[in-house]
Structure formats: C-alpha cells, structure tokens
Amino acid sequence: MRLRLAIAAMLPVLALTACGTSSTTEDAGPTRTVKHAMGETKVPMAPKRVVVLDTDKLDTMVSLGLVPVGAAQAQENQTWPDYLGPSLSATKPVGTLQQVNIEAVMALKPDLILGSKFRQEAFYDKLSKIAPTVFTERVGVTWKENFLLDAEALGKKDQAQQLMTGYETRAKEVGAKFSKLEVGIVRFMPTEIRLYGPESFSGIVVGDAGIPRPQPQQLADQDDKRFGKISQENIAKGDADAIFYSAYGEAAAKSQAEVTGGPLWKNLGAVKSGHAFNVDDEIWMLGIGVTAAGKILDDLDKHLTALA
Questions:
Q1: Best CA proximity match to 184, nearest among 300, 272, 262
Q2: What is the pLDDT of residues 199-236, one digit of tens each?
Q3: In the chain, count of helices (H) and strands (E)?
Q4: What residue numbers bound the domain in which 263 lies?
Q5: CA-to-CA distance for 8 and 22, rounded, in angstroms?
C-alpha cells in the first residue's frame, strides 16, 4: 500500500519533468548541432516544415529540391520569384524581410526557421521559441557561405557543395570566352541609381567568370564594395562594353524608363552599339543563390557572344 502511495505521489512530478524538457526539436527525433551567426542550435536531421526569411533561402530550398511551408517576401504582397518556377505555389507568406509576421510563422508549425542576422536579428528570440532557428551573418557578399550553412541546417550540405562546384566550373567556362570585355551593372531604385560593384551578388558572379569590370565600378574608394550611388548626370560611370541593367519594383521601373529614354543614357557607348541589356531584377539582384547565379551566367553567355 505504501509503495502504491509513493508511486502515486511521484506521478505528477514525473509529468511536470517530462513537460519541462519536451521541445519541438526533440519531438522531431534525432538532431544535429549547427553553428551559426547567433550561436549553436540543435536542428532535426531531416526538417520537414521549413520557414525561410530571405530571398536567398528561397533559391537555396528550390536548388536543393525542397519547398518551404512559409517565406518572407521582399515587399508586401509580392509574388514568389518567377525564375524559381511553380514549386513555391503552396508556400505561405509570413510578412516581409524586415517585418516578420511572428503569428503567421507560428501558425505554420515549422520544425526549422532559416533567417539572416543582418535583417532579422530583432526577431531571433521570438522565432527560436517557435522552432530551431539558424541565422546566416550577412547577405549578398557571403552568399556562397550562406548557401552551404543553410544546406547544412537542411541536412543537404554534400548536395549543396556539388551544386556550388558545378556553378564555379561553369562560370570559368563561360567567362573564358569574354575575358577581353568589360561588363557594367546598373540598377534603378525608386529614388536612386546604383552601380553594382565586385562584392554584390551579381558582381561576384561576373567576377567568378573572370570578366573584367570598368574602373569606376570597382568602387576602389569605398569600404563597402557592393554598390555605389550615381545620378542621371553621371550615368557615364555605368558605361562598359556591355551594360546589364534592372529595376527594383514599379516606381523604379518608371525611373528606369525616364533615364533610358533620355539623351545621357542614349549617348553611352554600350547603348549606341546595342549592347545594353535589360535583365530580371529577381535574378540579378534578389536571387542571391546558386540557381540565380546560373541564370546570370545564361544571360552573360547569351548577350556577350555577339561581342566576343
């Protein structure tokens, strides 16, 4: 009788102990520890319900044959990037890159969240209470490291390394044909014009191909070599043997139309020779992943062949 009473008294304690130690990660089964920008996190061996909070991670998921259950959008009510095809049709929006909708993330019951310290550090504590959360440090310049870290969290690092090696090999093959040409990269924003430098995503891809950049676009006098700002009056800094240009959103597209319709743009050497190419902003600027990088190589190969 005393033994039964003792066991009965212990049951509530055992129940409380079990509740205190259970977590989403443990419920998912075996875990791996991943080191990332915010520390170390135990993640499921094979995550099934992943939420991603930056555009590079959309590219990463699709490149690895996976589909996120939820994703942050670059802008409110924006559609998923066309270049990634129909695979994201079931992916639910969870706010924007800078303003994550915590309730929307929670409702999707993720078992892994991938984000960026640069953009979402303020949300990390809340997100990590919902599910194991892995953050990359920066965006753009570290895109290759980010791809491999995200792939590690997804349990796909070997596959990611193969994709990266394949991309870098192809970049050299494509670029070998155009090593005597200089390429300019110009982006129209709603309120400014940018020259993209050697540490931007598209600049890195062009650099991996070994294709030179004009001196003004090397941004030698800047610490941040992702991009520099120019005005319509000094648009000549964007000139090169070939110019690849894009616009970020509708307001920027209007600005692009005004500038490219004006005399200063039309006087650029690349424009006069028919070598200024309007390209997809989602690929060249927002993709920041191995699939987008491959499509930039496609554009370079397609448009530069006639010049070589």
A1: 300
A2: 999 999 999 999 999 999 999 999 999 999 999 999 99
A3: 14, 12
A4: 172-304
A5: 22
Q: In which residue ranges of the chain is pLDDT below 70? A: 1-28
Handedness of CA 182, 187, 193, 196 (dihedral sign): negative
Cβ neighbors of 4 (< 8 A, separation 6 or more) are: none
* CB of 195 closer than 8 Å to CB of 185: yes
Q: In Å, what is the CA distance from 255 to each residue of 47, 180, 247, 259, 265?
A: 43, 32, 8, 6, 12
* SS3 label, residue 66: coil
User: The pTM is what?
Assistant: 0.88
Structural domain total, the chain: 2
* 77 CB neighbour count, 10 Å cutoff: 7
CATH number of the domain residue 118 falls in: 3.40.50.1980
| CA trace torsion 100, 106, 107, 110 (10° rounding) | 100
Strand partners, 278: 245
Q: Are 292 and 178 members of one domain?
A: yes
Spatial CA neighbour of 301 closest among 204, 168, 173, 143:
173
Q: What is the pLDDT of residue 100?
A: 96
| String of DSSP letters for 180-240 | T--EEEEEE-SS-EEEE-TTSHHHHHHHHTT----GGGG-TT-S--SEEEE-GGGGGGG-S
pLDDT digits (tens, 9 = 90+) for 71-113: 999 887 788 999 999 999 999 999 999 999 999 999 999 999 9
Q: Phi and psi at residue 122, in whole multiples of 5°?
A: -65, -20
Tokens of 252: 């920027």
